[in-house]
Specification:
One of its GO terms (cellular component) is plasma membrane. Keywords: Acyltransferase, Glycerol metabolism, Lipid biosynthesis, Lipid metabolism, Transferase. With about 425 residues, the protein is α+β, with helices and mostly antiparallel strands. It is built from 13 helices and 14 strands. It has a domain of about 220 residues: Chloramphenicol Acetyltransferase, CATH 3.30.559. Strands 6-14-13-10-7-8-9 form a seven-stranded mixed β-sheet, sandwiched between helices. Strands 3-4-5 form a three-stranded mixed β-sheet. It has a two-stranded antiparallel sheet with strand order 1-2. Helix 10 packs across helix 13.
Length: about 425
Amino acid sequence: MSLVENRLQRAPRYRQVVREVTLGLARPVWVDDRDFDINFHIRRSGLPRPGGPADLAELVSRVMSRPLDRTRPLWEMYLIEGLADGRLAILTKSHRCLIDGPENPEISEVICDATDEPELLPEELWMPGSPPGSTSLVVGALAEAMARPGDLVETMVHGNGLVSEVRSVVGNTVRRIGDVVGQLTDSAPHSPLNNSGTTTRTFTTAYVSRRDCAKIAERHDCTVNDVELAIISGVMRKWMLSVDPAAVPADTVRVVVPLSPRDPGVEVDAAAEPGWIGVGKPSFVTDLPVGESNPTVRLAQVAGLAERYAQSSRRMTTGPSPLFPELGMVPFADISSRAFRSLDSRSYNVPVAMSTAPIAHRFVLGVPVREVFYIPVLVSQRALAVSVVEYGDRLQFAFIADRGVISDLPDMAEYVTESFEELLVTD
């Protein structure tokens, strides 16, 4: 707990709450939580010893099924004991509005170090600032509305008719949502994956060798990202056949994935340190050929479609990352993300969060972090979300699903291994 307290100065939003502006005249604002209690946010939990991956996954499922408390800073951290070999796990749950690039990192990144020598920041005496009064908030909102009338319209318009109404307001606003509209007019294939009837979650993980995936990519003249998507394609195909062995899988499953710096046409900053979590990155929609039974052909089709769609403005979006979907509210959603939420029920089947670069080894208080998994939270009308992290010599897959729709999610961990091995043995 002392480590988190010391590092919170690098994540100021984790001690703030969101305050609504009277009459909804402007976006909500950040204010310091005058009743901030770190003991509420950091919790200890234990597994029956010796806890295995299935026990940990079940605990994660329960935690992710519960909503965050909107009256407090929107995050929780769990120190999980009882794992085999005396290991510990740290689970963080953060609303996406807390995270906004390097200036506002996720709390798990803040507590980690790049070496086994912990960095101790100078002690900081934190005192909450005085909250702005209702009158000053309204006056400030009106001044902002006069300067940016498009934002005023955005805050007052709700519902699925937003895009058609806003397009006539200002040209700048139209440009912000244009790409999203173009993408969303191309409907995704009909799928039970576009279903979400409960708030109860189920979670599972799997990993494969990153070195072997790189060899597969080199052999087939594609990227590691393509191999990751090909593995997910194999997983989806096997799951569909397990649900109904007599059925022929649909031709494709449509996914939204982040645009990688390894994709064509994307500039790479060689001096940049890979971020712990990519937020605000552009994404694109592509199709996974789950109807193809040959794993080699499937990989070739994945690579070809991803290369083509990654360069298509029609398939691009600057909307919210699937890694941080809504956990109840999104205070700072811009017009593009609201359009994304209002129309996304027909744009794709599964959100896939992928690290855009390998993550170097991390340490917590000098102890090496052995595994890192992103836990994507389900968005509206989605039964499944997937993430892939390149950490050390592993590609680490995480799956979270609506338990009412996909009760056999742990099987997907086995499908990852099977799909990977199919690619590994291909010529």
